[in-house]
Amino acid sequence: MEESDLAIRIETDHLEAVIPKRDPRQWMTGIEKGSFLDKATGFREIGDGLMVVDWLMEAGSDEEYGDRVIAPDGHGVGRYSWYENETDPERRYYTRMSHGSSHRKRMVEGPQLCHRMRPVQPEVIHGAEFVAVTTTCRFEYAAPGRRTGSRWTQRIVFPRGERFFVLMDRIDSVNDSPEMFLRNDTPGCVRHERGDAFSEIYLSYLGGPGGVRIPSSEFFTPFPPDLKFGYRRDLNSTPEHFIRAYHTRDMRTGEQGPWLAGLTLEPSVVYEAWCSQRPGGIIVMIEEIHGKPVQAGDSFSAAHIVGWFDTIEEMHGVYEEHKGHTCLTADASGWQLVR
């Protein structure tokens, strides 16, 4: 482990990764863009980072107050107006392609952590067989009628001998909500030009018990999140496993690389998830966790495994070994997934 004013760099026998503290290459949360290396193959993450975190949100429309919510630094909060109500054609198109039109949502607290979070000083535990990094932050502003100060905690454990890391996102809420959720990217977005960096995407929870393998050609043309490849807990049955992965390939030679996968270890915590192609060559793999009633003082969390796999069968084997967990603890004596 190497730590500087900017970041924490982790190197294990199988992986390399960077966790930003300030001035990141792309986003402040999760694993820094382009830093996640599989030593066995030389392949790296091909998006904007891994397990990136956005807002604390809930179901509902912000139409009545969205234009009045401004952050203390003057930055807008990212209003989620419905594209049907948007008068500007360009903004209407962007809103539709980014957020769809079938499920209204609004911010509870901000900022968008990946984009606007202040510098952080994570807690690091360097054990004999692992390194654990815990980052915490409190949201700084809220929607009208809501309090500020809910706490986000992200804990990442890098075990020796594995091609993956284990991660938990946790919220300790200071607000009530009938349907609160945290939005993130699991495992992360995919940047490509007509499939040059990946050959297919695998979603275990669609297409039947074996999941669905989607060729890269399905992502040559932009489409909104509610058109295809979407999951909603209220519309889909809860799957046995919740795995999202993309199959890397060498952009120069076309040679297949390993899969980069995100495993959400308790499927029932997923409120909504989508895999959609935005304009500009980016596949967005948004996942929203919890989406259930919350009272001030309540907490909720999700646990994930993110890493490199040679086969889909290997992903499911690791999932079966660790499934059902939603929390992750760590101290000097070791780390543990908790139900």
Low-confidence stretches: 77-84
> Could you describe the largest sheet, including whether it forms a barrel?
9 strands, antiparallel
- From the N-terminal CA to the C-terminal CA, the straight-line distance is 29 Å
Our estimate of the beta-strand percent is 35-45%
Report on this structure.
- By secondary structure, the protein is mainly beta.
- Helix content is 8%, strand content 43%.
- The strands form four sheets. It has a nine-stranded antiparallel sheet with strand order 7-8-10-11-21-18-17-14-15, covered by helices on one side. Strands 5, 6, 9, 12, 13, 16, 19 and 20 form an eight-stranded antiparallel sheet that branches.
- 46% of the residues are buried.
- Residues 77-84 have low confidence and may be disordered.
Q: How would you summarize this macromolecular structure in one to three sentences?
A:
By secondary structure, the protein is mainly beta.
List the helices and strands and how they pair.
Elements: E1 2-3, E2 7-11, E3 15-20, E4 37-38, E5 53-59, H1 89-99, E6 105-110, H2 113-116, E7 123-126, E8 130-138, E9 141-142, E10 151-159, E11 164-172, E12 177-185, E13 190-191, E14 198-203, E15 212-215, E16 230-232, E17 242-249, E18 256-264, E19 270-278, E20 282-294, E21 299-309, H3 312-322, E22 327-331, E23 334-338
Antiparallel strand pairs: 1-2, 2-3, 3-4, 5-6, 5-12, 6-9, 7-8, 8-10, 10-11, 11-21, 12-20, 13-20, 14-15, 14-17, 16-19, 17-18, 18-21, 19-20, 22-23
